[in-house]
From TrEMBL:
<protein>
    <submittedName>
        <fullName>NAD-dependent epimerase/dehydratase family protein</fullName>
    </submittedName>
</protein>
<feature type="domain" description="NAD-dependent epimerase/dehydratase">
    <location>
        <begin position="6"/>
        <end position="233"/>
    </location>
</feature>
<dbReference type="Pfam" id="PF01370">
    <property type="entry name" value="Epimerase"/>
</dbReference>
<comment type="similarity">
    <text>Belongs to the NAD(P)-dependent epimerase/dehydratase family. Dihydroflavonol-4-reductase subfamily.</text>
</comment>
<dbReference type="InterPro" id="IPR036291">
    <property type="entry name" value="NAD(P)-bd_dom_sf"/>
</dbReference>
<dbReference type="InterPro" id="IPR001509">
    <property type="entry name" value="Epimerase_deHydtase"/>
</dbReference>
<keyword id="KW-0560">Oxidoreductase</keyword>
<dbReference type="InterPro" id="IPR050425">
    <property type="entry name" value="NAD(P)_dehydrat-like"/>
</dbReference>
Length: 307
């Protein structure tokens, strides 16, 4: 894989930051798109491109073997204007795919989300797999989920010619924060640690480590025979938030002293333990995620309030 040329979109983001480091460690040549903020990573060629604008994408994809399309607005929960999420997610994906196809890119790996598969379903004991799609107006579904469904569907419907396409659907991503930014599932760990929650909602959260998500991206990029395949990227079934809190309390001692102990009622759509299969990623990609306690503690240590 040495000297493969890879474009990563959204290079200043949490997951992309780990993906870029993983690619550099494996000897790839990395170009990454950014909007305004540029991360401090050596050895990367940063180029400017916005998902809402055609400018920059043709040049970004030129001379590249693989594209890892990670960029998308991440804002779960209620939003004022759904199009703020849906338009960049869907049209941006099409811009990236068009530029990649026209540049002769071999394969695109698209970062979709479990939000595109396992949301909007009534509580069920069904084990979610890659065959599932979220229900657009079902219980617990939000604009972010719809943006991920629309983007992934648009990608599958896009006329990609000989270019290969693989999608990854991570659950809530936790792990050591990069700098001061708090992203994705780390928000919930931060809210627990700072005592900003009056109690612990009786909810279940499926989690995965950001380092394992980065590893899955590289595996999806290089594993032969995965054109047209989706992969759920989850450590296992959803786990109770109170167990995450207990892991932090045991592992972090004093730094976890503000975590509340009272249990609150569940939040709509999250009060049921979703069963999620990672069998396909393990079998086809040879993916082997680490223990959840390691992920929770690494996130906690990086976010623990000081003083
Ligand atoms: P993040 O840190 O917020 O990264 C998102 C990236 O998307 C940022 O770099 C952001 O650019 C970029 N972006 C947003 N709107 C853009 C636009 N209009 N044009 C260009 N770039 C734009 O979030 P993340 O957690 O790393 O998420 C990365 C991907 O993983 C997303 O596709 C997300 O849906 C998916 N995912 C995340 C989770 C999770 O729990 N974190 C779970 C499943 C899937 P700026 O740096 O300029 O803001």
């Amino acid at each position: 894989m040495t000297k493969q040329r890879v474009l990563v979109t959204g290079g200043a983001g949490f997951i992309a930051g780990y993906v870029i480091r993983e690619l550099l460690d494996r000897g790839c040549r990395v170009r990454a798109t950014v909007r305004a903020r540029k991360p401090a990573i050596d050895g990367v060629e940063f180029v400017q491109a916005d998902l809402l604008d055609d400018a920059g994408w043709t040049a970004a994809a030129e001379g590249v073997d693989y594209v890892l399309h990670v960029a998308s607005p991440v804002r779960p929960g209620p939003v004022e204007n759904e199009d703020d999420l849906i338009v960049p997610a869907r049209r941006g994906t099409l811009r990236v795919l068009r530029a990649a196809r026209d540049a002769g890119v071999r394969r695109v790996v698209l970062t979709s989300a479990f939000h595109a598969a396992g949301f909007g379903h009534p509580p069920t004991d069904h084990v979610f797999t890659e065959r599932d799609w979220s229900v657009l107006d079902g219980p617990g579904m939000d604009a972010y989920g719809r943006s991920k469904v629309f983007a992934e569907r648009a990608a599958w419907e896009f006329d990609r010619g000989a270019m290969e396409l693989t999608t990854l659907l991570p659950v809530a991503v936790l792990g050591p924060a990069l700098g001061s930014e708090v992203s994705g599932g780390n928000h919930i760990v931060q809210r627990l640690l700072t005592g900003r929650m009056p109690g612990i909602p009786d909810i279940f959260l499926p989690i995965v480590d950001v380092r394992d998500v980065a590893d899955a991206h590289v595996r999806a990029m290089v594993t032969p025979g995965v054109d047209g395949e989706r992969f759920l990227i989850a450590n296992g079934p959803a786990i109770p938030l109170k167990d995450i809190a207990a892991t932090l309390r045991t592992g972090l001692g004093e730094a976890a002293s503000r975590i509340p102990t009272a249990l609150l009622p569940p939040v709509e759509g999250l009060g049921h333990q979703k069963q999620i299969s990672n069998e396909k990623a393990r079998r086809v990609l040879g993916w082997n995620p680490r223990a959840t306690s390691e992920t929770i503690l690494a996130a906690g240590r990086s976010l623990a309030p000081t003083g």
